[in-house]
């Protein structure tokens, strides 16, 4: 509180001293200075004392308190700049021209900063993503751990690490990327994704038994997740135009030249997709090993006969070659 009132008290004293000097020396510059100090003093009290110290401290969320403080400070500086310009520039045409030149110079000099600032405002006000969301922007994927007015920091995923695992690197993404790139959010409003496991079995296998085996395992591992996913979809239908779709797991078939391809489709938590896939895959392998009628296929090539290349035996009689024809070889030692 002492810090909050020290600056306005100092400005008030300075303005009072200048006011006393007007009894000795009259000048329009002194009057403008006094008006400027009073204006800055009022703006400071409103923004830095009343709004920041009285309102921001009521925010329980650290990130909201941070964003509101930064936004308030930016508005505070902008209003100060405008008020000072209006007080010291008399001609309205000069004022407008000056604003135009300053705006143009500002836009050119900090173009990237301005775009990042706009992107940051879009992220915050449109709720494109928030801290804790798993996103993918411009080919970069990760969990959001910090958002400020200019950059978004994510815990990077994928790259050289397979599937949905962190690399350990922190990536800083400029906020303007959301203005010109698609943003994939894996956890906003719906924290599940559809995943698939593909299993090739040989044509001599019992495909009906394989289908039943895989389906039973998938149902057992995902039945609770299916209920949560349906509940989240119901909430999404109140916000988006989403047709009712089933979250039941399914088995799909595809016939290839070498095997029957069975694909299991199911819902999985976005943050546990790889863990769930591993768990289901292990159980499928264990059950197939115990089964006698199911065999996992591998690609093979059956050769019925060697193809006729059309090459004929040479008609040259090698025994008729005259060895004397090599007597004059340039490599002969003399």
TrEMBL record:
<dbReference type="InterPro" id="IPR023408">
    <property type="entry name" value="MscS_beta-dom_sf"/>
</dbReference>
<keyword id="KW-1133">Transmembrane helix</keyword>
<keyword id="KW-0812">Transmembrane</keyword>
<dbReference type="InterPro" id="IPR045275">
    <property type="entry name" value="MscS_archaea/bacteria_type"/>
</dbReference>
<feature type="transmembrane region" description="Helical">
    <location>
        <begin position="5"/>
        <end position="24"/>
    </location>
</feature>
<dbReference type="GO" id="GO:0016020">
    <property type="term" value="C:membrane"/>
</dbReference>
<feature type="transmembrane region" description="Helical">
    <location>
        <begin position="30"/>
        <end position="51"/>
    </location>
</feature>
<dbReference type="GO" id="GO:0008381">
    <property type="term" value="F:mechanosensitive monoatomic ion channel activity"/>
</dbReference>
<protein>
    <recommendedName>
        <fullName>Mechanosensitive ion channel MscS domain-containing protein</fullName>
    </recommendedName>
</protein>
<dbReference type="InterPro" id="IPR010920">
    <property type="entry name" value="LSM_dom_sf"/>
</dbReference>
<keyword id="KW-0472">Membrane</keyword>
<feature type="region of interest" description="Disordered">
    <location>
        <begin position="312"/>
        <end position="334"/>
    </location>
</feature>
<feature type="domain" description="Mechanosensitive ion channel MscS">
    <location>
        <begin position="112"/>
        <end position="188"/>
    </location>
</feature>
<feature type="transmembrane region" description="Helical">
    <location>
        <begin position="71"/>
        <end position="89"/>
    </location>
</feature>
<dbReference type="Pfam" id="PF00924">
    <property type="entry name" value="MS_channel_2nd"/>
</dbReference>
<dbReference type="InterPro" id="IPR006685">
    <property type="entry name" value="MscS_channel_2nd"/>
</dbReference>
């Amino acid at each position: 509180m002492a810090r909050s009132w020290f600056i306005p008290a100092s400005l008030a004293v300075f303005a009072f001293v200048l006011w006393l000097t007007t009894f000795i020396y009259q000048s329009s510059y002194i009057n403008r200075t006094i008006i400027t100090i009073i204006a800055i003093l009022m703006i400071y009290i409103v923004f830095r004392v009343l709004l920041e110290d009285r309102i921001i401290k009521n925010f329980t969320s650290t990130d909201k308190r941070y964003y509101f403080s930064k936004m308030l400070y930016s508005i505070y500086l902008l209003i100060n700049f405008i008020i000072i310009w209006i007080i010291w520039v008399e001609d309205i045409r000069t004022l407008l021209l000056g604003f135009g030149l300053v705006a143009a110079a500002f836009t050119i000099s900090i173009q990237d900063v301005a775009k990042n600032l706009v992107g940051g405002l879009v992220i915050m006000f449109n709720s494109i993503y928030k801290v804790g969301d798993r996103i993918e922007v411009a080919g970069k994927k990760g969990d959001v751990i910090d958002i400020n007015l200019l950059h978004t920091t994510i815990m990077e995923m994928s790259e050289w690490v397979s599937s949905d695992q962190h690399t350990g690197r922190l990536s800083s993404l400029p906020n303007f990327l959301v203005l010109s790139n698609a943003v994939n959010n894996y956890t906003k409003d719906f924290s599940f994704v559809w995943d698939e496991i593909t299993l090739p079995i040989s044509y001599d296998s019992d495909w009906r038994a394989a289908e039943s085996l895989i389906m039973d395992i998938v149902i057992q591992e995902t039945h609770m997740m299916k209920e949560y996913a349906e509940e989240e979809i119901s909430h999404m239908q109140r916000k988006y135009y989403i047709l009712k779709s089933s979250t039941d797991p399914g088995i799909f078939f595809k016939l290839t030249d070498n095997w029957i391809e069975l694909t299991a489709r199911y819902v999985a938590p976005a943050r546990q997709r790889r863990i769930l896939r591993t768990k289901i895959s292990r159980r499928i392998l264990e059950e197939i090993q115990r089964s006698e009628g199911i065999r996992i296929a591998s690609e093979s090539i059956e050769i019925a006969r060697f193809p006729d290349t059309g090459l004929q035996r040479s008609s040259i009689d090698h025994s008729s070659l005259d060895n004397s024809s090599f007597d004059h070889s340039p490599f002969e030692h003399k």
